[in-house]
Amino acid sequence: MGARAILAVARNNFRQISHDKRTLGMIVMMPIIFILLFGFTFAGEPENIRTILVNADQGAEVTFHIDGSSYTQTVTVSDLFIENLDPKTFNLVYKDDLNVSLNEVKDGKAWAVIYFPPHFTQGILNWASVLGNVSEFLDADVSFNAVPVEDSNITLYVDGSNTQVAAKVIAEVGFAFTQTIEERSPNISFTSFITKDFVYGENVRFIDFFAPGIIGLVVTMITVILTIVSFVRERTNGTLDRLFVSPIKPSDIVLGYTVTFSVIALFQSVELLLVASLLFNITFVGSILLALALIVLYAIGILGLGILLSTLAKNEFQAIQFVPLVIVPSIMLAGILWPIESMPEVVRPISSVIPLTYLASSLRSVMIRGWGLGEILPELTILIVFAVILLGVGILLVYKKANRLGLRKRKKE
Amino acid sequence: MKQVVVTKDLVKKFGELRAVDRLNLQIQKGEIYGFIGPNGSGKTTTIKILSGLLRPTSGESYVLGCRIPDPSIFPRIGYMPQEVALYPDLTVSQTISFFGEIYGLGKKEMEKREEELLAFVDMKAKRKEMVSNLSGGMRHRLSLAVSLIHKPELLFLDEPTVGVDPELRTSFWEYFRDLTEDGVTVLLTTHYMDEASRCDRVGMIREGKLVAVGTPDQLKEKTNTQSLEDAFLHYVRRIG
Ligand SMILES: Nc1ncnc2c1ncn2[C@@H]1O[C@H](COP(=O)(O)OP(=O)(O)OP(=O)(O)O)[C@@H](O)[C@H]1O
Ligand SMILES: [Mg+2]
Questions:
Q1: What CATH fold (topology level) applies to the domain A49-200?
Q2: Do A8 and B102 touch (CB under 8 A)?
Q3: How far is A241 from chain B (nearest CA, A)?
Q4: What is B3-239's CATH topology?
């Protein structure tokens, strides 16, 4: 029998699915829903953050020398900094009273207060004069009296309850600060101390980071749900018994299912990649064939897991309860949304036994870093081991259900 | 006469319950053997053991000359489960062709077989109907057709005529008779006494034990009753 029986089982699966509009709908729609959901939720960085700006800067006295004559004037440099605050990130509101502003943050009406103290300009120019180029800083021929002052720092009051918003505010204020200094004094460059050179993924965004994980998640969901439900249904229907007393080998039944779910996983991955490319323009620099091969390998392992779970359930209702048991750890611990490195030591061993961990990381390497077979070999090997073990266990369990375990051994006696 | 099914002290326990209790069966080639007994007496369990779906707790059984369990008998036996074991999301025609493929039928052969079987169960008009939309009796007919697809030489039919209308029931029996003339052996279970009396031999089973075997006439004679129904009641009550 072999190939013919395997294909018969696969064809049978497809025929059933094609008549089951709801399942068909789920297979087609799930990738789209997932990528839209995750894409729109996580694609952007925080924007339009309501922030109160309190500028108490009193300026500093500076003497200008123009054409031999001199005059003294008060200058404020805080405005230069404010101009450099990213207008997309901040929704700036100007207020005079610091306490009133702080209360707004406490009441949750604003995320942060940026406070320029009275001696801000004095402080900055003091610093510039230490470096000996106040003239350069103000772009004019000036003399300036450095008078030591206290409390000349910008103070940032941030509501840290939303870590992403807080991190963004802090990063953007710092960025505006260094940018202003650098603009004003070309000899000083903070960035010159650190040279940034992206080894991979110069323009990679968060969505590029998690898209591979989402593919894995969708494949996990569909494969686990469909395998568990179809196997439990075959068993409770009695159709599995019918197959067990036919010439088809139990392994051919499982392999038939493997063909079905590999095709479905391929379809969904391509669909997901297309939608993600069109809508979010995700990064994909590696080999698509290698990516698809990884996905199929993963789907095979998950199918085995599904069969294993289906044998633990008496009916479809019980079976479906296993789905969150597989999905939730995969979402949380496989490094889809958060890097494994950010997880506490205790859960890392769990991460390392979740197959999705290896799919997500290898798929990411292929998509973003453009890695080839050689570079992802360690993960590929682990995925192969997972697939072989899980599928092997699945096949073994079906042989057991068919009462055909140990048959050959007994015959030899 | 050649014995197609032989069991020796077959026992199947589910926990403490002896569903089959030291059962000794001999079924001859070409006969229709009717297995009758009250609900829960072990008919289905016996059939499942004989077809290889269940392992007995103890005892031996031989089917078509092979010691059971043995996968090599699968192409030669047909099994119709008691519950309707079909895929609800297939059409009638797809159901037949799937099982045809599983049994390795060629395309031509399959088409021919589909025609024959659909004619036999009188379902030609339902060819494109979804199994989930069929009536209960129709599903039963299709289920029988499926177990005949590969022309098996031994048939295990677990209540093949449940829910089937009287007219078709008669034609089923004519068909079974035709099959035995070609040397096919039929082991079936039934709760209908009129059907039991059409069997070549009847085995009465109660609490997993075979309490009487014989032709319908022999059984009536032995119990001194007029109908097989009375004979049945006689055995079922006497032991209890
Ligand atoms: N898988 C099982 N686990 C436990 N007990 C079982 C199992 N299968 C059957 N039994 C029990 O074994 C006994 C025999 O069941 P079986 O299905 O063989 O009866 P039957 O003669 O086919 O009855 P019916 O006429 O109702 O079909 C019953 O008491 C049943 O409850
Ligand atoms: Mg029964």
A1: abc type-2 transporter like fold (3.40.1710)
A2: yes
A3: 7
A4: Rossmann fold (3.40.50)
